[in-house]
Amino acid sequence: DTGVSQDPRHKITKRGQNVTFRCDPISEHNRLYWYRQTLGQGPEFLTYFQNEAQLEKSRLLSDRFSAERPKGSFSTLEIQRTEQGDSAMYLCASSLVGGSGANVLTFGAGSRLTVL
Amino acid sequence: SQKIEQNSEALNIQEGKTATLTCNYTNYSPAYLQWYRQDPGRGPVFLLLIRENEKEKRKERLKVTFDTTLKQSLFHITASQPADSATYLCALYPQNDMRFGAGTRLTVKP
Q: Could B100 and A42 be called an inter-chain contact, meaning their C-beta atoms sit closer than 8 Å?
């Protein structure tokens, strides 16, 4: 297993276009998170999945954002009608939650979005 | 409102000294607290975890303390090296998701 993979690493788009990011988590992990990070800030929680169920969404996640995790494997994050304020690094992380173990996140390298 | 505050945006120290980073939180009751390291252009990498019933945790040159009364964690890097230069994030796991502070950018000068 090579860790958490994100694609594409960089995306430049024009305002109003739709973009989609993909995340392939560590295969044994049952939880998948999406975060957004802007320069000088920590990761901001967007949403997370437990297997294929989306269990929580941040109020940061406007109706232009949608995330899916079909069959509890890879996940996609789509942003419709992009705005310049959407420019950020989008981070995906996965973890194995269960028993008495703590929830330790393994992050991907991120997908950097630039909206012109 | 819930907040996670890290003491400063940037910390500059000389090689060989001990770096001490602070994480304060309000309106959280976390079961545990974690510290992550983030290098430019990369995702955060997990370093250490400390549970609410633990006062101190060590791993090699790293030490973390957790005071649930003060709602504060301290992260120490002893005998710092230029390779320790990075942004360090503290994270809380209050319920089902992980919340992060803004991070402290550490620069260790040779």
A: yes
**Sequence-separated contacts (24+) of B47-53 with Cβ below 8 Å:** B47/B88, B48/B75, B49/A102, B49/A104, B51/A102
As to burial, measured by CB atoms within 10 angstroms (0-12 exposed, 13-18 middle, 19+ buried), residue A58 is middle
Chain A contact set for B89 (CB, 8 A): 42-43
Euclidean distance between CA atoms A101 and B52, whole angstroms: 14
Q: What is the CA radius of gyration of chain A?
A: 14
Distances (CA, A) of A77 to A85, B11, B28, B46, B101: 16, 35, 28, 23, 23
Q: Tell me the pairing of strands B62-67 and B45-51.
A: unpaired
Contacts B96 to A, Cβ<8 Å: 48, 55-56
Between β-strands B99-100 and A5-7, what pairing exists: parallel, antiparallel or unpaired?
unpaired
Give the per-residue SS3 of B34-100.
EEEEECCCCCCEEEEEEECCCCEEEECCEEEEEECCCCEEEEEECCCCHHHCEEEEEEECCCCCCEE
Mind listing the pLDDT tens digit for each residue in A16-34?
Answer: 999 999 999 999 998 999 9
A53 contacts: CB under 8 Å, gap ≥ 6: none
Instruction: Find which of A2-6, A48-52, A62-66, B17-21 is predicted with most confidence, using mean pLDDT.
Output: B17-21
Distance of CA B26 to the CA centre of its chain: 16
- Rounded CA gap, B107 and B109, in Å? 6
- Locate B11 and state its tokens: 């910390």
